[in-house]
Amino acid sequence: MTDPTAQYPDDGFPQQEQEQPGLTAPMEPQPDHGEKTYVGSGRLVGKRALITGGDSGIGRAVAIAFAREGADVAITYLPEEQDDADDTSAWIELAGSRSLLLPGDLTDEDHCIWTVRETISEFGGLDILVLNAGYQESRDGLENIPTPEFDRVFRTNLYSMMWLGREAIPHLGEGASIITTTSIQAFSPSPELIDYAMTKAAQVAYTKALAAQLGERGIRVNAVAPGPIWTPLIPATSWPEKLPTFGQDTPLGRAGQPAEVAGAYVYLASDASTYVSGAVLPVTGGKPL
Question: Is 265 a catalytic residue?
Fold first, then answer.
């Protein structure tokens, strides 16, 4: 049996900072995306998945897991994240699955539409839509947030979900699955992440409303709510002083790794969860939602 408190180091992370968007290579220590540990069991054979923000962090871990479960995987990412995307693509193909790279900015409506259409064109359809891309920045009070900044947060975290979902839904059949990445911030918001937390709460409403709409069509919609997970988003959030204790306030006493979140997405995408819809699955190290 694995002791979850000892699975990964619990002594925090060295102070470090990156520009947005964060990248994997400069991170110390390197995140674990399940590259050496995730073992598939054929739960998604023949499925076609689109993962936004699939180049790094949770998105990369999910892409690797999906590929090892037998799915073909398309990932979206910003052009400046090309190196991360190439690495993720290599892991997908090493698993024997098809990989599709879709660079561009999801704050643009036309790009979101193109992303869905390109995936369907290349894979011949779409079975799993993972709405994972997100942007956050540390704020020094609501009164100090300029409109272009919270507009970027809303367009990345909310508008893109509306555009992608709207374009994808007509192409989804019975058994399809939509999975959103919300956050513990939706339930326990930090003041320095006020705009990000607002979008995460809205994503919960999106998930529950869409599950009610699409249930009669046999399409399930669920969310994963991660807690503190060691991804490039963390050193890119302008709070290096928080890193030495990041995640240590959880009952398990440490931050999580992307590899520890991927299984939740596999469960929600697979036939193991055929009676689960409108749910928010916490992966928080024991922190309550």
Answer: no
